[in-house]
Amino acid sequence: MKKQNPKNASSKQNPAKALRKLQKRLGSQVSVDEDSCFRASLDNLRLSSLPTAVVHVQEPQDVRIVLKLANKHGVPVTTRGAGTSATGSAVPIQGGWVLDLSRLNQIEIDPIARIATVGAGVVTADLQAEVEALGLFFPPDPSSKKYSTIGGNIACNAGGMRCVKYGVTRDYVLGLAGFLADGSPFQFGLPLKKYVSGLNLRDLLIGSEGTLGVITSANLKLISKPEKRWTGMFAFKSEAAALKAVVGLFKAGVSPSILEFLDRQSVGCAEAYTGKPIFAGQPRSAILLVELDGIPVEVRAQRKRLLDYMLATAAAHREARSELQAEKLWQVRRTCSQSMFSIADTKLNEDVVVPIEKQAELIRYTIALKKKIGLSTPTFGHAGDGNLHVHIMYNRASESDAEKAKAGIQQLMQKVVELGGVITGEHGIGLAKAPFMSLQHSAPEIAAMRAVKKALDPLGILNPGKIFEPFEVWDHDLVDVKLPWDHR
Amino acid sequence: MKKQNPKNASSKQNPAKALRKLQKRLGSQVSVDEDSCFRASLDNLRLSSLPTAVVHVQEPQDVRIVLKLANKHGVPVTTRGAGTSATGSAVPIQGGWVLDLSRLNQIEIDPIARIATVGAGVVTADLQAEVEALGLFFPPDPSSKKYSTIGGNIACNAGGMRCVKYGVTRDYVLGLAGFLADGSPFQFGLPLKKYVSGLNLRDLLIGSEGTLGVITSANLKLISKPEKRWTGMFAFKSEAAALKAVVGLFKAGVSPSILEFLDRQSVGCAEAYTGKPIFAGQPRSAILLVELDGIPVEVRAQRKRLLDYMLATAAAHREARSELQAEKLWQVRRTCSQSMFSIADTKLNEDVVVPIEKQAELIRYTIALKKKIGLSTPTFGHAGDGNLHVHIMYNRASESDAEKAKAGIQQLMQKVVELGGVITGEHGIGLAKAPFMSLQHSAPEIAAMRAVKKALDPLGILNPGKIFEPFEVWDHDLVDVKLPWDHR
Predict the structure, then answer these.
(1) pLDDT for B412-430, tens place per residue?
(2) Radius of gyration of chain A measured on its C-alpha atoms
(3) What is the ipTM of this complex?
(4) Cβ(B120)–Cβ(B173) under 8 Å?
(5) pLDDT digits over A157-189, tens only?
(6) Interface check A190 vs B, CB under 8 A
(7) What 3-state DSSP class applies to A403?
(8) Which fold does the domain B229-418 belong to in CATH?
(9) Which of residues 310-339 of A touch B (CB under 8 A)?
(10) Any stretches that span the bilayer, and where are they (chains A, B) (predicted)?
(11) Residue A382 contacts B, CB cutoff 8 Å
(12) Which of A291, A316, B32, B405 makes a 20 to 30 Å CA pair with B180?
């Protein structure tokens, strides 16, 4: 892969000298060995681009040192948490230095104000465990939460399954501290519930994938932990029937905390993998998984409302009577995801969103697409938000498969935008979705975004090559590597 | 007042020619008469600066026409809803043209997806009425809601009383449509619950007070209307006791939908005005007003928890047994606000925020400040958020009063920032708070904000002179005018 230098910084470029200075300032916190550089070269997209050094940040001020030097010498800087990003947003695609923030893992909780102040490297699930021990709740739950860091969640505005009731990561961020591209410290927002002073750069940074600044800590809003949960699973003869029920549930006044959909292709994969149907006598059903939460009386009332509607429309159903049974129902969802690799060795996971009422039309399209391109298109996801993960499965070694997959993704994205949807609901753009930016946004909209990027990072040193630059993942080899979250 | 032309556009400046072109394009939608220009010259700050024309926008495309001409001829453009802003953010301080969006008042509601799509000119209370008729709820409730427009609410990220439970305007905005400074149309975000494509300019525009773009419509998130409400009022011997109870209620697990505080100065004003104590036998108490809402069983459980705590700490209490009684309790809050004008003819209303646990310290300071400057400092506000309205009352004709008030505000703002707070929680910066920007934000933070402003509005035509420019309201005469929301 050709490495490009940041455009405006080439005159000052002297990478070897810059590295020597960096090592002089930060000593053993700077790794340049092959193994460290390889580990920092990729994320869950599995596209590797080696940095020249990895800086293991011990305290926020280290970031300032790195950015000052990077500015002076025109070195690209890519910030990294756990590397769970699905789009290559954590890949140092133009080389340079990687800022590894995973050691910034302090957690402080104010249970009265209900605010947590956490380092960017705190693992999402660790925060959730600490918070829940105090009877509080931090709802954002990306599927990578056992590994992903809060900094990464904020950089990508991570979602998850609970967004239908509780919203996304952005909805829980009150303040951000960190460093601007030139190394100046910033605090945008504070641990306060109301704040309208000046332009809101806090929310501009959220979801900017490390292209506008480096976030070292965050003040997060916490809420009450739901007292009770209920989980149920429902089978439908068709995707259309299941997705009609999603709309019907909202009409009936049900407010689920989770509302997940699995299409028949996904269910078929899981059933082939485990060797038995999920609903006995109802193989290859489309499935809805529903969680309700709240105070017990509210959960009971919601359950009644839900069952009144569902028992008239679903082909079969199952309720969890215990935590263990609930866990078994959720296992179905996880098995679907893993079992898809029985179809082919590579999974393209597109996190598109369409209006809730248009989901049935999207699924008709994915089924038609399967026939058209001859590749499986199993789809599941967060039907309560209209946020469906459409997968295209293909074998990496087959050039013809890859061409079909590439064409399929392009057509899918066009369809999503036609339906009034968005090309990404929770993964972000990174490298993988850069080709579709112009489908979603007009030229003046993109020009406005680029102008903002240039205003905050005039030398283009922060995560260069992402979001706006032309990139085709297809032109690059992906690496075959086992990452901590791989269970296949 | 001297009018300044936007700095970068002076070479192209020909205001008379520009106005002729504007009139040719938009005909009778352009008003240049004295009366129209005066009405568009001020907001609730009551500082008047005349525009040369007011454009009554009939459809969004009119905005494009205005901005194209304004760019070509370097004319300042200030966007306006109802003009309820408390900070001068709607005042055309550098003259030019005012865009009046009040006719963009369409409302469309999708009750299944729970999304409203509304014109920028929709009056907040009108939207709330339509939404509540469908059993839905749009919580943001600035005190000006009977007059304020959604566009203005978004431009200032308006708050209100319900934020302690439901958050601020920003939390309900999914998508924004409008025009960039150069007249290009934009759609940032969509009527979808998840959206992470590209840089988030939607939230950058929210709260930017019309300095970055012109918002013509918004997609707003709706929630379920609470089934039941309960209101209670509690008297305390001192501010310290009342504000200790605020912390105590949170510790006790109470989740109020409203939690308002009135200090003894405010209560004293109301009691002098009505001629009787709010709590018989307990004159000049500090007061907490609490609303609970939700499903009936939840409200009952919360009420019990609240009363268990309050009856042990409050000096007296009163519960509303009906809607009418609740309205009477809220009347107390409103009377406090109006009755302050019995102290002096001018009210400085500072919407500061401090951490919840620091509110008692802030009130100790406002009482000390009263003694120090010899002006009343009645304070009430949203104690559940730490968002207190500190007022300094003075007589406009008295130069010495004005000097004391000016010094008092400066000291108050310093104290707020020392306490870890913010100089504005729901009003924004506008003109009135511009002198305090450097108390709140570091020079690099302000430079970053200004760089973003310049990136999106390189000619500086959008609401010039606001947020970042040095300005002292004290150097300008305020006008004595009755505005629609004046009830004194």
Answers:
(1) 999 999 999 999 999 999 9
(2) 23
(3) 0.95
(4) no
(5) 999 999 999 999 999 999 999 999 999 999 999
(6) yes
(7) helix
(8) Vanillyl-alcohol Oxidase; Chain A, domain 3 (3.40.462)
(9) none
(10) none
(11) yes
(12) B32
